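A reminder from the course coordinator: this example appears on the midterm review sheet, so study it carefully.

Given structure:
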């Protein structure tokens, strides 16, 4: 038997999460399919520790807390979450039901689809050092989730990017020792003042260097750089750029514009019943921001509700009079 949903949201970034909350507000049976093992999208991936100042009503909140809040908001509506699954194709059957096929061949059935999958999926470039993989997630990390984890620890940041400088400076004063290893002779995508701050900090800079070896058994204890320098190390943080696997929305049968999906004012895509919100959507004067994704999520969900029932109200007028699941 097909488990048919009113709306299936592709992508569990901030836009997809907020869409899941809002479709719950409209009493729609909702599913979220997310490729990563956990939700949060770009905010969790790129800047969980950074403070975000431009979301209405939140004068300053870390990326991590923002994701936690919007996840909690989504969960209050009890949608079905499917993580670690990548949607590979969408097909609209003759009976109007959408069949979403994941890369591993699973099928998901839905009356409408809300695309909130940004520009596609992304993974960090891995550290390419022999025998290092076994420390991934334990002592080798690709994002700072929790600064306190590094308190009084010896940390090596591997990066030639501003992200690496930001991490190093955030760790200064928390970690016992911070080194930054840059395989180039300069930092990329940086402002001059970032480099000046780094140079006047206590972070030890190793330019034109790479890690040649990692040492340790169950626990990594040290590394050797390509000039023979030996460093004791508790943690390595790596930011060597991203591998982006762009969503091929045109292969899903949708009209696209430079890889994104043009939408009408109701956030509808070129296939009736498919709606788009967040970074995946494009229209004149579009901004790619968390707040615009939230607003578009509301519009897309309202349009999906109207698509399902043309007599449905255009919007939820007040959350006070509306049933909210506790
Ligand atoms: C470094 C940086 C700093 C930023 N700072 C700010 C800021 O201060 N304030 C602000 O408002 N905005 C900021 N932004 C922009 C903001 O992060 C984005 O606008 C926002 O994250 C977009 O959210 P989204 O949910 O639309 O897309 P995403 O966050 O990209 O989420 C899309 C999700 O869909 C998943 N996905 C993709 N394809 C598939 C598939 N086929 N199947 C299943 N899942 C899939 C992805 O894994 C991902 O989790 C910043 C962006 C960056 C990169």
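Designed residues:
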């Amino acid at each position: 038997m097909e488990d048919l949903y009113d709306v299936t949201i592709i992508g569990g970034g901030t836009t997809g999460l907020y869409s899941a909350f809002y479709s719950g507000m409209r009493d729609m049976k909702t599913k979220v399919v997310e490729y990563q093992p956990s939700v949060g999208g770009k905010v969790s991936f790129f800047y969980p520790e950074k403070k975000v100042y431009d979301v209405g009503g939140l004068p300053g909140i870390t990326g991590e807390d923002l994701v936690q809040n919007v996840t909690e908001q989504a969960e209050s509506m009890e949608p079905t979450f499917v993580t670690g699954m990548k949607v590979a194709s969408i097909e609209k059957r003759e009976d109007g039901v959408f069949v979403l096929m994941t890369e591993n061949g699973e099928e998901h059935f839905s009356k409408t689809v809300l695309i909130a999958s940004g520009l596609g999926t992304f993974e960090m470039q891995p550290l390419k050092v022999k025998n290092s993989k076994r420390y991934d997630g334990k002592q080798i990390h690709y994002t700072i989730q929790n600064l306190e984890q590094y308190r009084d620890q010896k940390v090596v940041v591997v990066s030639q990017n501003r992200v690496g400088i930001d991490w190093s400076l955030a760790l200064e004063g928390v970690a016992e020792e911070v080194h930054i290893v840059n395989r180039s002779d300069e930092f990329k995508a940086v402002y001059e003042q970032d480099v000046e701050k780094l140079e006047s900090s206590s972070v030890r800079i190793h330019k034109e260097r790479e890690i040649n070896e990692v040492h340790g058994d169950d626990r990594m204890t040290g590394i050797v750089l390509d000039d023979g320098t030996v460093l004791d190390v508790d943690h390595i943080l790596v930011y060597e750029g991203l591998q982006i696997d762009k969503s091929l929305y045109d292969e899903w049968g949708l009209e696209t514009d430079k890889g994104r999906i043009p939408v009408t004012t109701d956030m509808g895509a070129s296939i009736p019943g498919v709606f788009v919100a967040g970074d995946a959507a494009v229209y004149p004067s579009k901004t790619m921001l968390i707040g615009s994704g939230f607003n578009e999520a509301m519009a897309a969900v309202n349009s999906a509700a109207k698509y399902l029932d043309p007599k449905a109200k255009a919007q939820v007028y007040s959350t006070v009079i509306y049933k909210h699941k506790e």
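The helical segments are 14-25, 41-46, 63-75, 162-171, 192-199, 290-308. DSSP finds six helices and 21 strands in the chain.
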